[in-house]
Amino acid sequence: MDLELAERWAIVGASSSGLGLACAKALHAEGVNVVINGRSPKTLESAAVDVRSVGDGTAHVVAVAGDIGSAETRERLLEACPAPDILVTNNGGPPPGPFQKSVRGDWQVGLDANLLAHVDLINLVVDGMCDRRFGRIVNITSAMVTTPRPTMAVSSAARAALTAAAKGLSLDVAKFNVTVNNLLPERFDTERQRYMAQVATQRDGISYDEARSRQVRSIVAGRLGDPREFGATCAFLCSPLSGYISGQNIHLDGGSYPALI
């Protein structure tokens, strides 16, 4: 299926690993020029090689090192791609911990990284998208937006705030052929889930293998998600063929979300 994305330009935040990298690879495989980003220059360069490996050599891959939460990094992303057709916002989540042990500083860090950094990036690009009559904004949030857990209060709150802000924006920009959607992952086989398993071993006094088994058992499909599945969904939402989908929260969770809406 041709997603009609060739020669478009995309900025993908926090894309040197994990789900961000999966999205960058899926877009580049469709002929999109991709600007990728990550904190570690070494990891980012390795990711750039990985992204280039899925393309046919005609589209560009530009790497911009830095923390997406930094205004300087966001400015350099726009210098590398002044008129993006696609923006995929993403950032690492805050560490898990019980609500009662969280302090004001934890909440501020979470809001800066998982709400305000995204909002600032969107504000840098959305008016230009409207002027050009094409734009696709995809926010990588979390299943915790709709199914919060006691140990993920900071993450849930920040990402739910982004979800609400994105919904309001989507109503304003749809008439300009600009869509805004959120992807809500749960239990994809990435470094984040390996980290969460290590946290569980300390918190619950279990083995790493048992922690990983618990992750699998929490998904009704009986397996962790393949990052390629996530990237493919993102690529479709970024295509011209998805123009009638906006303001949506799309669960990618192996069928685990228990509610109707």
Shape: globular
Task: Name the quaternary structure.
Answer: single chain
Number of helices: 8
Overall mean pLDDT stands at 96
Distance between the termini: 29 Å
Gyration radius (Cα, Å) is 18 Å
Tell me the number of strands: 7
Element string (H = helix, E = strand):
EHEHEHEHEHEHHHE
Instruction: Tell me the name of the CATH homologous superfamily of the largest domain.
Output: NAD(P)-binding Rossmann-like Domain
Strand adjacency order, main sheet = 3-2-1-4-5-6-7
CATH architecture of the largest domain: 3-Layer(aba) Sandwich
Task: Report the sheet-strand fraction.
Answer: 5-15%
Major sheet description: 7 strands, parallel
Helix content: 40-55%
In CATH, what is the class of the largest domain? Alpha Beta
Number of domains: 2
Structural class: alpha/beta
* Uncertain stretches: none
Q: From the 3D structure, determine the CATH topology of the largest domain.
A: Rossmann fold
What does it look like?
By secondary structure, this protein is of the alpha/beta class. It folds into 2 domains: 9-188 and 226-252, Rossmann fold (3-Layer(aba) Sandwich), CATH 3.40.50; 189-224. It contains 8 helices and 7 strands; from the N terminus they run βαβαβαβαβαβαααβ. It has helices at residues 18-29, 41-52, 71-80, 104-132, 153-173, 191-204, 208-217, 227-237, and strands spanning 9-12, 33-38, 61-65, 86-89, 135-140, 178-185, 249-252. The protein has a 7-stranded parallel sheet, with helices on both faces. Helix 1 (18-29) packs parallel to helix 2 (41-52), helix 4 (104-132) packs parallel to helix 5 and helix 6 crosses helix 7 (208-217).
